Amino acid sequence: MTKGTESTYRNKLAEYMGTWRNSYEKARLIEEFTFFEEDGIMKISIENSKESFYQSPWTIGTVKPHGYTPDSNDIVAFKGHIKMDDMEAFFAINENKGLLIIAGYLTFKDEDPRSDCFVREFFYKV
Amino acid sequence: MQANQLAHTKTDDLVSEFYHEWGSDMSDLLGTWDNVNPKTGQISRIIVTSENQQLKLQAFGKLNEGEMDWGTVVCEIFSSNVASPTVEGFMCRFNFDFMHVQIAGNMKYGVMVIQSYNTFTDGTSRNNYFSREFFCKLNA
Fold it and tell me: What are the boundaries of each domain within chain B?
């Protein structure tokens, strides 16, 4: 954050904190995820869906909020990153009228035969 | 009558030779749908029911205090193609004294996407406008 009031930004950030559930009962990857803050850093924890093509437990990832313009103190999107033993995930997350849309780019380690893949899923606040 | 003899304006209007009557499955749409945006100034809640193979929609408009029950209307239903038995879209219209609201809805990965086309008929200078918002079964 470079501009705007700290309190406005914190209030906006607080609205995102908590658990978000996938709108689709046959979700391809994520059942739900939780935004939380730890030691002043925004983090994400993820639960796999029942039918997820990735069944290993996720480690905690880091998330960085983004506004719409450089001089705004709003938050409309997040960049997330999770690093695991077999895979790295990059998440581009944006908000649209109360819905969070995750575009996930999953990159498996070089020696892993699985194809790198892309998912896009929709979440609402629980 | 052969499928290709049916009146049509484009290829997708025609049924395939594998088509047979399936009926319409509306089950995915039924229930109470809440706007995922708690700050909306549009429709706050939708209740979808079926009766005698008709899809019915009751909408509630968000007010500064509470909400307004718009009543219940019958929907025109749509599948993703002429042979699909699954209803994935619908249209309906609410007529008020001073405006009418045309609703076009569709399902997308468990989200009900509602577009509304709002037309004022009271002669005021308000612009007609449209909105697009998202609804989920929050209490399911």
Answer: 23-136
DSSP one-letter string for B21-90? ----B-GGG-EEEEES-TT-SSEEEEEEEEETTEEEEEEEEE-SSSEEEEEEEEEEEEESSTT--BEEEE
User: How close is the nearest chain B Cα to the Cα of A116, in Å?
Assistant: 22
Mutate to test the interface with B, among A122, A125, A126 (most CBs of B within 10 A): A122
Half-sphere exposure of B54 (CA within 13 A, CB side): 9
Instruction: Indicate the residue of B37, B108, B109 with minimum beta-carbon distance to A98.
Output: B37
Cα–Cα dist A89/A45, whole Å: 12
Write out pLDDT tens, residues B2-46: 666 789 898 888 876 666 566 678 999 999 999 999 999 999 999
Rounded distance, CA B55 to CA B30, Å? 9
Nearest-neighbour CA in chain B from A111: distance (Å): 33
On whether the pTM is more than 0.80, the answer is yes
- Cβ distance B99 to B30 under 8 Å? no
- Could you tell me which CATH number the domain at B23-136 has? 2.40.128
Determine which of B111, B132, B137, B139 to mutate to test the interface with A (most A C-beta atoms within 10 Å). B111
- Domain boundaries A6-125, CATH class: mainly beta
Identify the three-state secondary structure at position A67: coil
Domain residue spans in chain A? 6-125
Given the DSSP bridges, would you call strands B129-136 and B111-120 parallel, antiparallel or unpaired? antiparallel
Helix or strand (DSSP H, E) at A94? strand A87-96
